[in-house]
Amino acid sequence: MQLSDILYEVKDSVARITINRPEKRNAFREETLDELIWAFGQAEADRTVGVIVLTGAGDRAFCSGGDIAWEDASDPVGAARMNRRTSVLSMIMRGCGKPVIARVRGYAVGGGNELQMICDLTVASSDSKFGQSGPKMGSVPVWWGTQLLPRIVGERRAREIVMLCEPITAQEAHAIGLINKVVPPDELDAAVDAWCERLLSLSPQALRVAKLSLNFESDQLWASVQHGQQMINFIHGTEEFHEGTSAFLEKRPADFARFRR
What we know:
By secondary structure, the chain is α/β, with parallel strands linked by helices. It is about 50% helix and about 15% strand. Strand 1 and strand 2 (about 15-20) form a beta hairpin.
């Protein structure tokens, strides 16, 4: 596959997938998702691969979610195309049977935070930031955000994260159980490599069964993801949605108050 938005490398039984759009803070568009689906499929099929590492290029962002310029120009049909791709990506990541480590440096917000939650383990640099931005943008984090957050951090804290859209430091994310490990930026690669080495020393079939068994309860939330994404399709293209995306692109506060008049 001709890759434009990601990098893919396999070395020493580790598949490394890098979202390579640093100028967009590694935000994803349809092409990015297509390439991520391909890469995870390659890693799943490759018997020599025991661990998958997902990261973002540069030091500013792991992933900042969906490309806002794309979303601002989208409509319900475009949203449906995007959501079909995110659905496929999350299912292959959760169902591949191989441990997936999120290597986070910088922002993991919006769909980027959902993406790191879909991974099995997350190691982050101490200068990273996490959080959801859906209502701030006129949207909702229904791609596993509203489903997994209550299970990971508790119901009340999940409501705070989703509804207030305030950033969370790496240290706080670790304290509430949103991520697994925080290290100084210059120790990030070593920490990820150490976990890869540890996982590769363990039984691959046992890890596969463990992952699928650990996913059993949350797999039952798939219906909520599907229902949520169908509802989001109808939000795209509305005046209120475009107020959020336009405000972001124009670097101004969104005026949602007018929709309550």
